[in-house]
Write a sequence for this structure.
């Protein structure tokens, strides 16, 4: 069965510090992997995606993620966090041919000044 | 370019009633997906429509249904509402079949 695990429910980082959000997935075929962000009262916004090729992908707002097939992981990183990055982050997995995604439970990021 | 528009944004219903939610996708997007978001279950896929046909369906009871019109606008309906149907219902549109979804702000349903 397809599943996504985000081990950290909450993470607090200081503004300017680096960030890594963890994501592990289980998927029977070649996965399409995504990170979405949701601000309070808003819908989700796509940060970045991985389909194939280079395992380090760049996204919007200075985020990047690295796909590691051997570890079934797709961790999200940012070298320097800004207060405006405070939000909930969701990792998701899907496959070719459709838009049915399986989402992780989300990680709430708090940024302290 | 206008984003995904969902109406109504907020609504309150009582158990046993039914509700219809509407979604207008981004112009040119032919795929519309619906997701339910709750604190306990997180984000769960309901169904996806493409060119007026249901292409994928999640694991929800038959009380949850949807449709898509020729202009790609979509509606979802929940009949015989239960307390557990209280949730944020998110609509997402896409131009491609790769999971790159553009979400609306959602319709928050409260069932009393």
């Amino acid at each position: 069965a397809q599943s996504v695990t985000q081990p950290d429910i909450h993470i607090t980082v200081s503004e300017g510090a680096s960030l890594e959000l963890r994501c592990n997935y289980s998927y029977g075929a070649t996965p399409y992997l995504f990170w979405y962000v949701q601000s309070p009262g808003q819908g989700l916004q796509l940060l970045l995606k991985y389909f194939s090729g280079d395992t380090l992908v760049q996204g919007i707002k200075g985020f990047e993620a690295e796909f590691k097939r051997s570890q079934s992981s797709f961790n999200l990183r940012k070298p320097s966090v800004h207060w405006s990055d405070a939000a909930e982050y969701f990792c998701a997995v899907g496959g070719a041919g459709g838009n049915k995604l399986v989402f992780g439970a989300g990680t709430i990021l708090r940024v302290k000044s | 370019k206008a984003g995904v528009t969902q109406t109504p944004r907020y609504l309150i219903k009582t158990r046993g009633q039914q509700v219809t939610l509407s979604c207008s996708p981004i112009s040119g997007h032919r795929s519309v997906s619906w997701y339910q978001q709750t604190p306990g279950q997180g984000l769960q896929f309901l169904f996806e429509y493409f060119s007026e046909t249901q292409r994928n369906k999640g694991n929800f009871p038959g009380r949850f249904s949807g449709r898509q019109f020729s202009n790609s606008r979509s509606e979802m309906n929940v009949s015989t509402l239960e307390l557990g149907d209280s949730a944020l219902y998110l609509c997402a549109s896409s131009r491609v079949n790769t999971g790159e979804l553009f979400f609306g702000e959602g319709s928050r349903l409260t069932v009393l």
Remarks:
- DSSP finds no helices and eleven strands in chain B.
- Chain B touches chain A at residues 4, 31, 33, 35, 42-45, 48, 55-56, 58, 90, 92, 94, 97-106 (CB under 8 Å).
- Residues 6 and 23 of chain B are 5 Å apart (CA to CA).
- The first strand of chain B starts at residue 5 and ends at 7.
